[in-house]
Design a protein that fits this description.
single chain, 4-stranded mixed β-sheet, 365 residues, alpha+beta, binds flavin-adenine dinucleotide, 4-stranded antiparallel β-sheet
């Protein structure tokens, strides 16, 4: 179903969206109608009620055609929607999940700030209690759906700087006075996935918009990111498979020295490395998905999957451009876009270096 949708609704337009940096919200809405925006939201809240295998399949099949939409689907499902699903009260789930799961509303999730990416605990955005409301001030940067998102889950400091129990998660709806979108980023890749600032100026949010308990936001965010890493591994694998399949086909068609270039061992061995690394990355990702489905501890495994799959995506996309030669360097073929899009995967939701910190801490503890 996702493949059919991708061929029909995404493939004819993805390069134009990329060139124009156009976020195709109408395509997102159609994916919502198909259940792709509430993949693991239970049916009682309007979702598809699936697990992480189906989620992996959906994100990677979309990313095989367009990394930007793969990223948007991943961020919507596992960050904003996933945070409310995991930590919202029954009332909060009933209020927001049906709109998010059906794509009526697009979700955003704000942790990062201009000075705090990897070092999220140093965030400066604050919320101060005033009667039955919280007053939020500050700016979140690099937020997927920062402009088009109808609702955002934002992580905000409610306690002391650097205190892991000093951060709280709030749900803020678009249209709340004092909440607006800021600058949109002009990116190298993932250009059709909107990335922008969220600006809060004396933004008043009611107490009932606090997700879970006060001071638990950072711990919640780390758990959300454990699942989010499966998303980015899936996104990476979609990009890697898209680039590999294009390169494999081209290598059989393109002739030099009177033979298909696939008959040269230098090219055939590149394809062998690409195929092997993709399968290894897929097994790591399915291992993390299996643990997540069984509600087992999976911090190390999801970090390994994200780290390895994202680095594989970059290597595979790079080799795909090489196999296409000069044609790979043009916008007439898809591999230059896979190459540009792949790089986000080693950065977003924790850089490769941060994944190695997570993995090494786990194996040394
Ligand atoms: C397209 C896109 C979409 C995004 N969407 C969202 C979103 O929806 N919500 C959100 O909250 N954020 C989002 N982000 C932000 C993203 O998660 C951050 O960019 C990422 O966490 C890295 O932070 P940084 O860019 O500030 O890099 P920095 O933290 O400044 O890192 C710079 C370099 O230093 C390295 N480094 C930092 N600390 C260490 C250390 N302790 N040890 C070793 N190396 C280190 C990093 O690995 C990196 O190589 C998005 C980013 C992009 C590009």
């Amino acid at each position: 179903m996702v493949q059919d949708f991708g061929e029909r609704e995404i493939r004819p337009h993805f390069m134009e969206w990329d060139e124009d940096q156009y976020f195709p919200i109408e395509t997102m809405k159609k994916m919502g109608e198909l259940g792709l925006l509430g993949v693991f939201v239970p049916e009682e809240y309007g979702g598809s009620g699936f697990g992480y295998y189906e989620y992996y399949t959906a994100v990677s099949e979309i990313a095989k055609i367009c990394g930007s939409l793969g990223l948007s689907v991943a961020a919507h499902n596992s960050l904003c929607t996933g945070h409310i699903l995991a930590f919202g009260s029954e009332e909060q789930k009933k209020k927001w999940l049906p709109k998010l799961a059906t794509g009526e509303w697009i979700g955003a999730w704000g942790l990062t700030e201009s000075n705090t990416g990897s070092d999220a605990l140093r965030m400066k955005t604050t919320a101060v209690k005033d009667g039955n409301e919280w007053v939020i001030n500050g700016t979140k940067n690099w937020i997927t759906h920062g402009i088009s998102g109808d609702v955002a889950v934002v992580l905000v400091r409610t306690g002391e700087l650097l205190d892991s129990r000093g951060i709280t998660a709030f749900v803020v709806e678009r249209g709340t006075p004092g909440f607006k979108a800021g600058k949109k980023e002009n990116k190298m890749g993932m250009r059709a996935s909107e990335t922008a600032e969220l600006v809060f100026e004396d933004c008043r949010v009611p107490e009932e918009n606090v997700l879970g308990n006060l001071g638990e936001g950072f711990i919640q965010a780390m758990k959300v990111l454990d699942g989010g890493r499966i998303s980015i591994a899936a996104l990476s694998l979609g990009i890697a498979k898209g680039a590999y399949e294009a390169a494999l086909k081209y290598s059989k068609e393109r002739e030099q020295f009177g033979k298909p270039i696939s008959s040269f061992q230098a090219i055939a061995f590149k394809l062998a490395d690409m195929a092997t690394e993709i399968e290894a990355a897929e097994l790591l990702t399915l291992q993390a998905a299996d643990l997540k489905n069984r509600k087992q501890e999976m911090t190390k495994e999801s970090a390994m999957a994200k780290y390895y799959a994202s680095e594989v995506a970059v290597r595979v996309a790079n080799e795909a451009v090489q196999i296409f030669g000069g044609y790979g360097y043009t916008k007439d073929f898809p591999v230059e876009k896979f190459y540009r899009d792949s790089k986000l995967c080693t950065i977003g939701e924790g850089t490769s270096e941060i994944q190695k910190l997570v993995i090494s801490r786990k194996i040394l503890s």
